[in-house]
Amino acid sequence: MVLRWKAEAEKGVVVSNFQRRGWVKSTSTTNSADDAADWNVYWASVQSVKQIFNPENGMRLNDSQLINHFPNHYELTRKDLMVKNIKRYRKEMERDCHPVGERDESGNYIHLDFIPITYVLPGDYSLFYEEFKKNPHSTWILKPTAKARGIGIYLINKISQMKKWMPHGKWAYTSGKDAYVISRYIDNPLLVGGKKFDLRIYVLVTSYRPLRAFLYKAGFARFCTAKYSNDLSELDNQVIHLTNVAVQKHAEDYNENHGSKWNIKNLRLYLEATYGHEKTKECFLQMKSIIYHSLKACQTVLINDKHCFELYGYDIIIDQNLKPWLIEVNASPSLSATTDADRIMKLEVISDTLDMVVSPELGEGGGKALRALGLAPPIGDFDSLHDDPELLAAGLALPNADLPSSRERDREKEGEGEAGWRQ
User: Which of 16, 160, 183, 370 is deepest in the core (most CB within 10 A)?
Assistant: First the structure.
């Protein structure tokens, strides 16, 4: 059986992986029920996924079909819904007296304090206003809930500055797609060479119930091209404050050779040399905990369709205290390559993703497409997150007793993991 593939916008690294496997391009041009059986693996846009899972569409996927988004992926990837689900999850953990839900003497969550203070506008405007009055000199970052690539993002430090985005000078009711989130700005970011950066981390989920999540070893840090300043006169300077490649590539000092990026391995080596092994190890453990608990926060609300998998792009910022903060989760992380190294890395992450989710039996004329909720061990540069030994040892995760542990795998070969996620 020759597999048939379909892809939106024919993303280069995705299509290259399909072609390497000898798969055949689908002739399907619509997402209607009539074309439902013409593909096995569909790398779709979120808009197409919405069409496919619309009950009125009449499309029913069969056991030999896979698609790269869960039906309501937006519960994690829309900024407002992510915040809502994490806040609910924290209350549930606290109510259930789970250790991860504990608070310190100041009332802050010890383990689940990983998103900045955030409000959804216009609904939470009065709450935001009260918080702002407590710290009138603080800086906040305003983002549309359903946009990406730095579009529509503004920094403010005065209530009057918000009038630019208020309909008719006040927050009127708007639809969900027009909503904003406003978060306390991380104004003490960790700097390298005086420049701000964030991390793009790839996470694959093959099932939410039970949770089967895998952390990719290769990721990268994205740097601003200009040195950081928290001077009020620079609030509108996106090149200083926003790490998005879509913003930085237009900067005068943008370097096309390395794309203003470091891989995670090099960043970890730098942090260890600068701050020491133990502090760096704790920082990376906290990042794994953030990813794990953000997924757990959405576990009960995500529709766990057996035909779905998802490769998320997590964006995390580290502050000067080596504390990581979750900024957002992307349902469609950019697969465009800015450098040769970037292209190779993205080719590999897609290759390993396909190896993880497509059963060899499918290409041999039988069997189901999905690997039985990912019961097979992680493949390539993916490591299990749901049963990560470090998280379990620290009491930050609960073991999936019915699933094989990643500790059974021989992943501790000489030299492996020394500059990656696990040490």
Answer: 370
* 37-64 per-position pLDDT tens digit: 789 999 999 999 999 998 887 788 888 8
Place of tokens 């909720």: 373
Which residues, including other chains, have CB under 8 Å from residue 95's CB and lie 6 or more apart?
Answer: 101
For residue 218, what are the contacts with CB-CB under 8 A and spacing of at least 6?
A: 202, 263, 264, 265, 345, 348, 349, 381
pLDDT per residue as tens digits for the range 267-308: 999 999 999 999 999 999 999 999 999 999 999 999 999 999
Contact 253, 259 (CB under 8 A): no
Sheet holding 24-25, edge to edge: 24-25, 4-7, 41-43, 66-67
User: Is the confidence at residue 241, as pLDDT, over 70?
Assistant: yes
CB 307 within 8 A of CB 66: yes
What's the confidence (pLDDT) of residue 400?
61
Please write the tens of the pLDDT for every residue from 110-153. Answer: 999 999 999 998 889 999 999 999 998 899 999 888 666 556 78
Band (pLDDT 50/70/90 cuts) for residue 33 is low
pTM recorded for the entire structure: 0.88
Domains and CATH numbers, the chain: 1-116+186-423 (3.30.470.20)
344 contacts: CB under 8 Å, gap ≥ 6: none
- 8 and 16 in contact (C-beta within 8 Å)? no
Residue (of 189, 180, 187) closest to 128 by Cα position: 180
Alpha-carbon gap, residue 143 to 149, rounded angstroms:
11
